[in-house]
Design brief:
- With about 325 residues, the protein is mostly helical.
- It is built from nine helices and three strands.
- The protein is elongated, with a radius of gyration of 32 Å.
Length: about 325
Amino acid sequence: MLQPPLAASPPTRTAPRAHAHQHDPSFTELVYAHFAWWHELRGDGPGEAAAAYHQLLDRFERSHGKIVHSFWCTHLESAVALTEQRARYFWQRSRWVFHRESDWATKGCPEIAAQLHRCDELAVRARTVLTGVRQRICLQLVTASAAHLLSLVDARTSHDVPQTAEFLQSETETIDNTEAYYRQAANGQAQIVYFAGMATVAALISAIAGVALAFGWMSGVAALIAGAIGAVVSVVQRINAGAFELDYDVGRPYAFFLGGLRPLIGGAFALAITFAFTSGMLHLPVGSQDKEANHKLAVLVVGFLAGFSERWAQDTLTAAVPGGGPAQEQPPPPKA
């Protein structure tokens, strides 16, 4: 067996026998079994590794899912693989897992090891945050990059690779692109959860306020609905403009919670500014004909604007309070 030129040779390990263990085999065990089977095919083994490897592979896939993409080193006991464990029921989702065994093989290649660890980090984030097609695409891209990096380590054990720096730079850029795809996909999914939280709370506010309005329990409660709708429209506009970023690594419940706060804040500002107009603290110009109907419509417009733009609502309320505006700079005292 050829030895890696940049790292000490690992101790010789024999392939694990399928009947020797009753526990679920790990990917590390599968890698050593595959390595022994590969060298047996080349005439370097004792002739017993093929059956052990295929039995171990069957047990591994029954436990972790079918291997859909993989790379196995020919000169090193190292490999990367992506497994898919299909869902048993229609409401479940397939489980994708990224596997890697190469740490000892990259001891003499710290720059390659660093990029492989980036692949590990991206795989963990993709499994935790992403779902569906986006998760599958991201994990396949990660597996492809890890396979390319591991092939470079494997090639360096048998011959020199003069273009190592260029190859590594190219693969680093590929991983950067994969990370950018992950961030875009994760932000898109977080926006969906955020919008679901907004829509749920806005619907609850509208239902409760509608009941209160129907029974005449509270004057100006229609502004609460207008403020909640204004807050939702404001976020939708920012999403369409591509200017809405979320912290997607905090998890779906927190994103849903933050989305639910948005219409509550918009409704609160709408109520406050509506009361400021109706109480006379602020002047609300309306038409001379049918002032009562025009006043109700104006209140709805003001409530919508308060929910749509919190900054406008804050500035308007601050201006309504005497001395509540920004403090004017006092001129310096005259010199004696």
